[in-house]
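Bit of a strange request maybe. I'm writing a small parser for structure token strings and I need a real example to test against, not something I typed by hand. Could someone generate the tokens for this chain?
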Amino acid sequence: MLDFPSACRVLDRHLRARLGSSLAVVAVAICWPDPAMAGACRLVVADEEVRCPYHAIDPTRHNVVFVDLADDAIRTADIGQPNSPSTELVFDPFLADLGWTALATAFAPDLRRALVMRAKPDCPPYAGAPGPGIACSYGRVTLWLAYHDPTTGEWVHVNLARRGLGRNSEAHGWSSWLHRDLALFNAIVFPDDGGFYTRQEQNIPQIYAVRFGTDREFAIEPFAPDLLWRGDCLTGRVNAQPPREPDRCFDGQRVSFVRRCYSEPLSPETWAWWNTRAADGTGGSCIPGQPAVQVPVLRTYVMELDARCRPGRPFASMLPAHVPTSGPVHRQMGIVPEWGEMLSAISPDGRYLAVAANMGDPRQPGDNCAGMKMNLRDPDDPLSGEADRIAHVCELDSSLRCSREPVRVGTLLTPPESTPLPGFVQLPSGSGLARHLVFSRRWSQSGRPQVNDIVRVDLDIGPDALVPLRFGHHAVAILPISYVPPPRRTGCSSAGWMWVLIVLVRRRSIVPSMVAWTVALGGCRNGAAQPQIVFMSPVKPGLGAVGYEIVTMNLDGSNRRQVTDNARQEFLPHFSPDGTRLVYTMFTSGSYGQPGSTTDVGLYDLARDVEVNLTNTGEDSYPVWSPDGRRIAFLSRASQGLGLWTMSADGAGRRTILEPKGAPAELTFGDLAWSSDDWILFVVAQDTGGCFKTRIDKVRPDGAARTQVTDGGASCTPPGKEQCGDADPGFSADGRTIYSSRLRIGRTSTDPSTSRIGHPRASSAASSRFSAVTSR
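Reply from user aminoacidic:
Good idea to test on real output. This should exercise your parser:
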């Protein structure tokens, strides 16, 4: 039986090589008229968004990802099974069939997102004027985001040149993840219709960050520019030590990066000549018609971050981890003008550094063109080669420098094969975890069969303990998969935590703006021996409302801890899903019920004992956590009352979800709750037919599928009384049951001793309304 997708891929590649991209697309469209036939992949927007079937990564069986040259797919495998040919598909080759070839892939620690370097080999180079833009990025490298959309069961591939990078930018794309919502990469960013660099000294990529609020809401920005930006320096590969928890950095997390600076003092140790036959820049050119260029050395640096993901020191005070060797053989460059130590990687424990050191042909130390004769890109062109990049490993000392001279990893061929892009993988062993280095090998000499495969090295045995991996034939750009599982909770039932709901008697405002009310939610602290609750306690009764402080304790009243201690009111605290942080309404002036008060969203990091403002508008309140702890929903001022907003857990990516439509059905919004199955409950104040009361609606976090849940009951609010209806919504842990309180008879809000609060009662979340339970 004919395999149409495979046949069309082969046809596409042959036509692109002979006819060019546009004619090839026409031919393949005739061969393959329906994109749905492409393994169910579908083109959403040409050169911008593609969706393909989701292929999960199993971290118990997959520890590396690579590009398969046989079909341009991206696959995973286990280097612990060197004799197994087994690999598993992650990303379909459909994008490659559209011309976007994959170069390397880096997965987030939760394995839901990835950044992929891609390029269009048939795109024209930059010619001094705005060119094809997003479709080609002038033939240079473009960064794509892939994320898992669980609602459709797809991997969604998005070109970042349309989502924060200029269409003419070059994202070199050596990306790494600090945690699941923050990735780093190196890039040169240009405005959409700007020019591009044409001289070597203009090639100055910097470190950029992708900060995620949601999969489709993210910001691309320079990373710590006040500490790291150097307009005279090129930045190469960035590689981070995996986080200890999937959603945050930790104090001392290490990141390696490569940099060369054009302000280096001119000397043989820091500059080398490219495209000259002699190392001193004389003797004529290697490649006729190409200019001779002096190139500064590439050095590797290691920095430590704090828990906020900030570097501990500026680049100006950093020393390179090692001084690159600058002998004649190490200064021989290939067709790419680069030399020194590059493509660095940090081990999972942060103790070891791997670098790829540039090296030409050791048999010809006097021939400065020798590097161009190795690892040929075109077997018929003897000067199309790339000099070797040989992997070396060292242990770092406390100053973040190599404690000893880096040890060269073994090679098997003559002249030596290139062993670039090293990465660390830990495998179980009898004594714990064994350190392995994994890398692609490349060897291409004129008139000799080409070698492209993958090798692992057991570093605990020695640098020459090379093990070829059977699955690695025709594979390139192998990188580790560093899965970080969610934190474990000890001493608490995973099925039952967050079920505790404590309702406190409280004052409510008599005005229909529904400023705030007081509920304490129970939680299970990460690592705690027992479940805990958080609540507000009148620690300083003489100060009135501002004398309330946030307190945590076990459910039996033990292990009581006062969290805050200040002269302002923190209101309605909630544990994060992992129990390590609190979010709450912070009164920046005034207090609950006081006219003219201002509020922002506050966050308290329990491990670090640090309180921060996530917002600074003076109009934000009622924050609640998403079930995965990555986002926060809250209320903020809208054109009509208070609207529903979301933001990421670090305060970035602020976004409006819903605003009240106004009288009579939607005066303002109130209390929030976010369920484990991704619904947001919110209170709605209405005044229909002269009957003022509150009801509960629900909506998806993207603003879709809004549904009325309750009608607020039959009671209307008498003048001057506490509002009738439903309030204080909450969900059970499995998201199937909704809890709330209902006031059926108006009570005077200024006298809490005479207020009666409706007892919490439950109904199925599938139901559109509650059935009332009689108060006692």
